[in-house]
Amino acid sequence: MSVDIATVKRVARLARIAVDEEDAGRMAGELNTILGFVEQLNEVDVSGVEPMTSVIPMEMKKRQDSVTDGNKAADIVANAPATEEGFFLVPKVVE
Amino acid sequence: MSDLTGLTIAAAREKLRAKEIKATEIADAYIAAIERANPAINAYVVTTPEKARDMAKASDAKLAKGEGGALEGIPLGIKDLFATEGVHTQACSHVLDGFKPRYESTVTANLWADGAVMLGKLNMDEFAMGSSNETSHYGPVVNPWRARGSNADLVPGGSSGGSAAAVSAFLCAGATATDTGGSIRQPAAFTGTVGIKPTYGRCSRWGIAAFASSLDQAGPIARDVRDAAILLRSMASVDPKDTTSVDRPVPDYEAALGRSVRGMKVGIPKEYRVEGMPEEIEALWQKGIAWLKDAGAEIVDISLPHTKYALPAYYIVAPAEASSNLARYDGVRYGLRVPGKDIVEMYENTRAAGFGREVKRRIMIGTYVLSAGYYDAYYLQAQKVRTLIKRDFEQVFDAGVDVILTPATPSAAFRIADQDMAADPVKMYLNDIFTVTVNMAGLPGIAVPAGLDANGLPLGLQLIGKPFEEETLFQTGHVIEQAAGTFQPAKWW
Fold it and tell me: Is B159 a catalytic residue?
């Protein structure tokens, strides 16, 4: 499988990263190198093998469904690039 | 190195408790050393001298009353990946520009609760993606080690390059680090320091900027095996805020030092003898085998047949998880924002300007392998191969092997701006060939300095243990350290 410039642009759009023609051309080459490297995984016989879902066998932890934290609106927006009255500000998303 | 910065954590701890020295004196000695050395080494991206002095003063007050925790008054450097309340935390990325968290990571909170003193935040590869510390937004770290007769700047390894360089150059008594594919062990090997990646689940990941959540683990980099054991005991904990944190008490790792390895079965995996590996690495490995044999261990040849597939599987799993984890950096809640004509263009512009090349490359790979139609061919296949890699280790341990000995890296430290590595990302990835299997299987691994190459550069050996048997790694690593000695760079900075 080889990645072309159109595919790079499509993936960049999915990843929300702006790329220009030059970036896309360079990335296509790099991505193909890496995908070529991982291609060797296809030679491994994985029939009957379960995909790994947990590094250490353990039961999912559960906790009490209770409020342990809160009243931190000022802390939560403290690092935002744009806020107003405790809200995050973003460009208009609905007409 | 002054008399005070030259002390190991264990030695400083004794002198502090005996009131021979003060925590404020050690803190001042490190602050002065960092001021002098950092322009050359670039290990710290931010220093916090006032905080260090305040914390040291508080430590002195406790020590005067005969109180104090396990690390009371010990000055540490913190990798920039750990959230530190009110202090620069950017994973050395431009996308987190100006971020000062309102919370503290569990690991650093554990260290401060035990009395440690914070000197500042340490340089690293951006979001821990790199093996040379060259992807940092704050520029590369320079390895305190130089080849004999050369002035060329070498990399300290990565991603915890700032941590390893700061420990090696006596700019902190010990440092926190993280390891996703080798980011503790490879820089430790490149700088003559000791680094341990504990079992997945041993240290809480809460408050550590996530790279690949199923692989990330925190651990210490230290001057010797004992200091690493002391630090890990404080860093590790059971944390309700991290569901993958394992409910097991944290043992006294230091107590494992000095235990005999007589009768222990040490596995030597034939698959780690890779093509093109320098003879010096092979010779070092043989030396390690001989030391353990002399100490009474039984050496057994083993096979881990899926070893060669660990790195390619890693370069699917890690970018896939990264592409998901790094989706949060969108210019809304924290960090950089670059405006655009609408919200999508704002996201795209912010991420294009905020992420460096290597991070973008990995997000792109991750997005591609998870995209419609490719999931089974790449991600699912890689997770199945991962099961086989883990099974290889389980079979060897089930057959009675206690610990596995391998080289830590396929070479010594290389030059900053190495042309071969810059031209081919896969060449850089091969640095992690001996370490990445351990992350894929979730096992603990330690890198211990074992000697110098012909150019006088440090080389390390790696020990791999069973899940939660870090004590075996400290015990065996200490035997190697006793035989090999410890290594310090000649000061040029």
Answer: yes
Tokens of A42: 């296809």
CB contact under 8 A, A41 and B425: no
Has residue A59 been placed in a domain?
no
Residue A9, in any domain of the structure:
yes
Let me know if B79 is a catalytic residue. yes
Is the pLDDT confidence value at B111 over 90?
yes
Q: Give the mean pLDDT of B271-294.
A: 94
Any domain includes A17: yes
pLDDT at B1: 59
Residue A70 lies in a domain: no
Domain of residue A30: give its range: 5-42
Average pLDDT, integer, range B204-222: 98
Give the three-class secondary structure for B298. strand
CB contact under 8 A, A15 and B316: no
**Class of the CATH domain delimited by B9-263:** alpha beta
Write a three-state SS string for B435-461: CHHHHHHCCCEEEEEEEECCCCCEEEE
Span B280-309, average pLDDT: 97
Q: What pLDDT sits at residue B174?
A: 98
Say whether B99 and A79 touch across the interface (CB within 8 A): yes
Q: How many domains does chain A have?
A: 1
As a whole number of Å, the CA-based R_g of chain A is 23
∠ Cα B183 B189 B195 (to 5°): 60
SS (H, E, C) A29-47: HHHHHHHHHHHHHHHCCCC
**Position B366: which residue type?**
G
- Please report where in the chains the tokens 């879902």 appear, as a residue: A53
Q: What residues does each domain of chain B span?
A: 9-263
Task: Return d(Cα A18, Cα B349) in angstroms, integer.
Answer: 6
The whole-angstrom separation of Cα B57 and Cα B52 is 9
pLDDT for residue B6 is more than 90: yes
Could you tell me if B78 and B178 are in contact, meaning their C-beta atoms sit under 8 angstroms apart?
A: no
Nearest CB to A18 within list B101, B348, B364: B348
**B204 prior amide bond cis, ω within 30:** no
Question: Any catalytic annotation for residue B214?
Answer: no
**End-to-end alpha carbon distance in chain B:** 11
Helix B357-370 crosses helix A21-38 at what angle (to 10 degrees)?
60
Q: What's the mean pLDDT when you consider all of chain B?
A: 97
Contacts A51 to B, Cβ<8 Å: 380, 383-384, 386-387
Please give the Cα distance from B389 to B307 (Å, whole number). Answer: 7
Rounded distance between C-alpha atoms, residue A28 and residue A20, angstroms: 12
ipTM comes to 0.95
Average pLDDT of the residues in B21-26: 98
Q: B239: nearest CA in chain A?
A: A61
Smallest CA-to-CA distance from B286 within B474, B461, B454 is with B461
Q: Chain B partners of A8 at a C-beta cutoff of 8 Å? A: 364
pLDDT tens by residue, A20-32: 999 999 999 999 9
Q: pLDDT tens digit string along B432-465?
A: 999 999 999 999 999 999 999 999 999 999 999 9
Beta strand pairing status for B194-197 and B265-269? unpaired
Residues 6+ apart with CB under 8 A from B382: A38, A41, B312, B313, B316, B317, B320
Contact residues on chain A for B336, CB-CB shorter than 8 A: 81
